[in-house]
Amino acid sequence: MGVLYYDLSEQFLASGLKFKYYGISRTVMEVGFELARADADVRFVIFSPAHERFFEVTPRIGADSPTGVLDPGLPPEATPIRMRYTFPKPNKLRDFLYPIALWGARMINRRRWRSVPADAVREVNLDGQTLVSLGRPKIMADYLTALARDGVQVKLNPLLHDMIPIYEFAHSSSKLFSNNFTHDNHLVIKGSERLLSNSAFTKAEIERFSASGHLPPLPEVVAVPLCHELRPTNEPVNQTGPDEPYVLCVGILTGRKNLECVMEAMLHLHDTGRPVPLLVLAGAQRKRTDTYLEQVRFDPIRDRLHIITNPNQAELRRLYEGALALAIPSRMEGWGLPLGEALWLGTPGLASNAAEALREVGGDLAQYFDPEDPKALAGLIDNLQSDPEAYAALKERIAAAKGSLRTWKDVAQDILAATGTI
């Protein structure tokens, strides 16, 4: 068995705990936890923008970690400022001034690094070594650029989570994010030994965009589907859901995440005289979401809205367990952790039929609807409320299937197998 280096830079660069439970950071954390317990030679590293080099770290695990799962074991005071190392296109003024800004950020990062105990890190040379990264492509693009300047050739095995920003609808107000995303993925793909993807759908998207010329020629692409498991933690539960039945939405926004469909479904239930359950919106607070919800047309159902901001993992688990159902109306997803977590805890999932990855997650356990048809979602919600026998039978069927659902250990073992570490 060879040595595998696992990249915790995503957590290091976002050490503020606000977003530690969501999306990519969550995946890095959970897979890292399982790799730390695996029967393999796995070592954990972070890229330091202060030094433009990698350091080996000893992560805190379980009760020793503030996340309750895993973190890099470095003080939050050491969290660096991150600035891009490359851009898609040249710009004379930016390219003249930017090195000065980079130098300033590096000096600040050096000062912050002083908070790191000397015995907590060890510089490591990754030349010729296998590095697995589940972080964002922009972070990988930065360190690949820095390593290339030093002549270091790492065997990068990144897990790509989606190609959504390449689509126009993902960021219709600005091309900047899409251009940067595409640029970063070009660098990552060109610098990789193989690619991992978080679903069969994402694998097909990577291959399609490569064939169309939006992405470069590909190395081997291996699908490593994410999972359904929601790990229990012993964090305090200060935010809880309502006592009466509620529909839960986790991290949905307007646009691609399609909060509009859920709100229109709730309004339709009200307008047709059907019972309107509470709607719990859990996740980070966003101004655009607040502005959308402030519309006068939602006044008739405003008292049915319940917002829970940034729940921790224990609070999120409690929300799933108490929900009538989870609604996930996204027009596209790379995987769909909330749907899997709801099913893991025995809660029915109502999922968009337009997001192919959600079919991978939900299989025949979830119920599907057209995300452009709020009335269809309203009908599914109404059926769950009005037919207790059918609802109980659905819950029993989901619970009986738990043994077939994927765990974070499954994901970690698939990564070890794909990289030849076991």
TrEMBL record:
It comes from Sulfitobacter sediminilitoris. Signal peptide: none annotated. Keywords: Transferase. One of its GO terms (molecular function) is glycosyltransferase activity. This is Glycosyltransferase. InterPro entries: Glyco_trans_1 (IPR001296). Residues 235-397 form the Glycosyl transferase family domain. It comes from the Bacteria. Transmembrane segments: none annotated.
